[in-house]
Amino acid sequence: MRKIGRKNSPIPIGIKNKKRFMPAKIDFDALKAGQSVLFGSEYTLSFIRQSDLNDIVETLHDEEVIAFLHFAPSPDSLYEAYFQPIIADTASQIERGEWPETPTFTLRDNKGKYMGMVGLQPVIFLEGNYEIGYQFARHAWGKGLATTTCRFATAFAFEKLRAHKLAADCYAGNARSARVLEKTGFQREGVQKGYYRIHNGFDDRLIYGMTSEQFARLKA
Ligand SMILES: CC(C)(COP(=O)(O)OP(=O)(O)OC[C@H]1O[C@@H](n2cnc3c(N)ncnc32)[C@H](O)[C@@H]1OP(=O)(O)O)[C@@H](O)C(=O)NCCC(=O)NCCS
Predict the structure, then answer these.
(1) Pocket-testing residue among 8, 169, 176, ligand 1, by greatest number of atoms within 8 A of Cβ
(2) Which of 79, 5, 15 is nearest to 216 (CA)?
(3) H or E segment and range at residue 217
(4) Best CA proximity match to 185, nearest among 2, 1, 14, 8
């Protein structure tokens, strides 16, 4: 079985293999019912819940994690004001048996340790368009987890939500994040010069995207 990315990637995935783009044994019925589902043999995945909030905010206290996040550092109250409505809406949409409007996945190891999150944010007024973003705790870096979860969320958007277009962006200095997007199959669509403020000046913004047609070709 061909493995893409790091040798210790938790889930063998091949970008050109439809079955392997998304981890094969995701229990989507359980996920939609709000349960944690197996994500490979060592991790579990669920939609964001109230009990994730402390871990998410704690992760955003880590200077290395926020080095390339334009919304951080911010007061905890701002993080909470952002995530609380998503958590509440997710709970009520799950209760109604629907996919959440802002699907936000959290990943934990089998002992319940928080690893990170990937979110799909719908673009207002553009039905079928989503922005994808992710943050992982430092102890989770370098295991291929971000790539695997980003691929999962990408496939989820196109296959379950019937998305038309996914967009993503990162600081030019955030080589890890650019690599995650490229390994997922996103194409670099542009560069905005000097977009992000950094400690000693400004950094460029790399813009990435994938259409449903490009996603279909990845799996062809
Ligand atoms: C970006 C982030 C999600 C990557 O997580 P990760 O678990 O290290 O990602 P993966 O292991 O799946 O892949 C990282 C890739 O970057 C590569 N990489 C690591 N350090 C690198 C560096 N300094 N320069 C270039 N590539 C680098 C890795 O080798 C790996 O590629 P490979 O599989 O081809 O070897 C994580 O660092 C993070 O959460 N950062 C803070 C939040 C953030 O910046 N989010 C993105 C906002 S756009």
Answers:
(1) 176
(2) 15
(3) helix 212-219
(4) 14
Gap between the Cα atoms of 99 and 44, Å rounded: 18
The structural domains of the chain, ordered by start, are: 18-160 (3.40.630.30)
pLDDT tens-digit readout, 43-82: 999 999 999 999 999 999 999 999 999 999 999 999 999 9
User: What is the model's pTM?
Assistant: 0.92
Closest alpha carbon to 5 in 179, 138, 159: 179
How far apart (Å, rounded) are the C-alpha atoms in residues 94 and 152? 19
CA distances to 13, 44, 207 from 188, rounded to whole Å, are 22, 30, 6
- Of 67, 73, 57, whose CA–CA distance to 177 is shortest? 67
6 CA: nearest ligand 1 atom: 33
